[in-house]
Amino acid sequence: MTRSSRQKRSVKRRVSKESIMSSGSYAESQTTSEYTADSMDKRVDSIQQHYNFIQHIWQSCFSAPVEEALMRGSFVLDIGCGTGNWLKEMANEYKCSEFVGVDILRHLTAEVNQLTNITFVQSNVLELLPFEENHFDYVRISNMILCFPENEWGNLLNEVARILKPGGYVEIEEPDLEISNRGPILDHMVSCCLEIYTQHGINSKLHTRLELYLASTNQFTDVEWDHKIFSFSSFNDIPGLSLGEVSYYFVGDIAPRIAEYMGVTEKELIFMFDQIQ
C-alpha cells in the first residue's frame, strides 16, 4: 500500500467475515438503564472477551502501515472506544504517540485512565466530532456496525476526512453478521437479531458497502481489503473464547430487545448463550 498524496487520505480496512462483533456503544441510552448489575458485569466481561477474540484472529492491533509514525509520535483517534482495551495496548506500546478515545458513554477501565498518553472525549460521533481539521494521523473505527443505522456512515466518514491529516490513514474493521453453518439455537437467535437490526436500518452486510461510502467523500484513496474467514470450533479450547461466550457480544446493548422479541427474559437469554456449543 502506497501512501497517499497530500490532498488525499488513505484507507486500510480490515473486514472480518463470519464473525460476530459490535460495540453497541451508540444504542439508545435508555437501553443501558434496563440492565441489572449482573447483566452489566456480563456485558463488561463480554467486551474484554470480544477484544481478546479479535486480537486472536488478527494477531495484531492494526494493519495500516503506521508503525514507524507511531514510534516517532502520532495523534491517534479510536472512534467508539468502549472500555479502552485497544487504547491501553497501543498507548503502552507507543509511548511517544497521543491517543484519544471518543464514545457516547464513559466506561474506560481504571488501567486506561491511569495512562497519561490517553485522553477520553465523551461525544456522540453522529454529531460534529469535537476536533479541529487535519488533526489526526490515524483514525480507527472498529465494530460500530450495530451502533447506528447504515445511512449515518456517509456523514461519519465525511467527519473522519475532515479531522484526518492529509496523508493520514483510517482503518475500519467491521464484520459480516450473517454467520454460516449455525446450529438451531444460534440460528434462532441470529435470525431474531437480524430482523431487529433491519427494523433499525442496520445492514448486516455493511462491509460490502463501506467502499461506496468512502468513495462518496472524494477524500480517500488507496483502499485495501483484508479478510479473515474462520471457524468458531478453532476457539473451543481457548478460555473465554467459546462460541457462546463470544456470541453474547453480538447482541450488545439491545439484549433486552432481543429477549423481548424472543419471548424470554434477559436472564434466560444469557443462559441460552451459555448453552451454545
Automatic annotation (TrEMBL):
Residues 1-34 are annotated as: Disordered. SUPFAM superfamilies: S-adenosyl-L-methionine-dependent methyltransferases. Gene3D superfamilies: Vaccinia Virus protein VP39 (3.40.50.150). One of its GO terms (molecular function) is methyltransferase activity. Residues 76-168 form the Methyltransferase domain. Residues 1-15 have a biased composition (Basic residues). Residues 20-34 have a biased composition (Polar residues). InterPro entries: Methyltransf_25, SAM-dependent_MTases_sf. PANTHER family: 2-METHOXY-6-POLYPRENYL-1,4-BENZOQUINOL METHYLASE, MITOCHONDRIAL, METHYLTRANSFERASE. This is 9123_t:CDS:1. The lineage of its organism: Eukaryota, Fungi, Fungi incertae sedis, Mucoromycota, Glomeromycotina.
